[in-house]
Design a protein that fits this description.
Blueprint: E1 4-8, H1 9-13, H2 22-33, E2 37-41, E3 59-62, E4 67-70, E5 73-77
Parallel strand pairs: 1-2, 2-3
Antiparallel strand pairs: 3-4, 4-5
Length: about 80
């Protein structure tokens, strides 16, 4: 049983113009509605907030793993 999906941003979740398509947003919402957590991981830092609607995700990992958040709460810092 799948409990969580983690995705990269650049060249994976984001389109070439650094946006998320409506189709991808719909899929993320459908997966979350099935109780599966969706996390994104990136080498980027706080600048990611201007690209990604954080409310789409249950958590995120920034700066190549240096910071991890669940529900916008910092849970790990290296």
């Amino acid at each position: 049983m799948t409990k969580m999906v983690v995705t990269d941003l650049d060249d994976t979740l984001l389109r070439t113009d650094k946006s998320i398509s409506k189709y991808t947003t719909d899929i993320i919402n459908r997966v979350r509605n099935q109780g599966i957590k969706i996390i994104f991981a990136t080498g980027r830092g706080a600048s990611t907030k201007s690209l990604i609607p954080y409310e789409l995700f249950d958590g995120y990992v920034l700066m190549n793993g240096a910071k991890a958040y669940v529900n916008n709460k910092l849970i790990y810092i290296r």
